[in-house]
PhzF family phenazine biosynthesis protein (Streptomyces poonensis), 235 residues
Amino acid sequence: MVLNARVTGYDVLRVFCGPRGGHGNELGVVREGSVLPDPADRQEFAAKLGFSETVFVDDPERGVVDIYTPTLRLPFAGHPCVGTAWLLDVPELVTPAGVVGARQDGEFSWIEARPEWAPPRTLRRYGSAAEVDALPVPPPGEWIYAWAWEDEAAGRVRARAFPGRIDERGDSRSGGAGACTGGIDEDEATGAAALLLTARLGRALNIRQGAGSQILTAPQPGGWVEVGGRVVLER
């Protein structure tokens, strides 16, 4: 099977960009998921593209989506949902984990999700933003979200994310950004980890992650959490 012959095109977004539109996590979105309906073919195509996540849209009007890393299928992921909700401009997305609320507010795209949908992360607090900035990449092991208050009263957080995993070829590659793929040293922007941190702290956060990405969060009634950020269409 030649995948390129069956997939007519895809969009590339950057999600959780900084105030000037830089940084953020790349995301691939196949708007016509029907051209590649088989999960095995989708997994192969996601691996071929190599983004941290690739989303296949199965129903653009209802917001039904299917999310893949290069190595596995995900029931939910933060930056893919934020980016796809912005691209489709829909009030909700339907994921295997559940229905994700979505809204647009000026320059920010927001989703509403539940912390239990996010994969486990080790949330490790440090004493200052400078300590987080100075952290070396840890050896492969647990998935670490290192964070510190920049301004606790204002809810401003400095964070870095270390997936701590080796990809299937056994090499740990730096560069790129991916919430779940492994094979990278540091993740530039992770909505799922921000969701977990917000649930733990019980307050709205303004997170500066990686080299310059920005993630906004806010707890909602009933255990829900909103996660928002800027989205840029790359191509």
